[in-house]
Amino acid sequence: MKRHLSYIKSLHKLYTTSNLEFELKDRISDSNMFYEIVSIDSSIGYLTIILKVIEWK
């Protein structure tokens, strides 16, 4: 079965005008959460990054 982003329940959006150098599947973290980048869009004048919460093991 092909999975679509709508099936993922724990997504977060990050909007920024900063020049960030990320690629799909990159993993990032803040102080206590870990995320995987699942989408990057810069078509509307700023960067929109969709993040999926992951468990770091």
TrEMBL record:
<dbReference type="InterPro" id="IPR010875">
    <property type="entry name" value="DUF1506"/>
</dbReference>
<protein>
    <submittedName>
        <fullName>Putative cytosolic protein</fullName>
    </submittedName>
</protein>
<keyword id="KW-0614">Plasmid</keyword>
<dbReference type="Pfam" id="PF07405">
    <property type="entry name" value="DUF1506"/>
</dbReference>
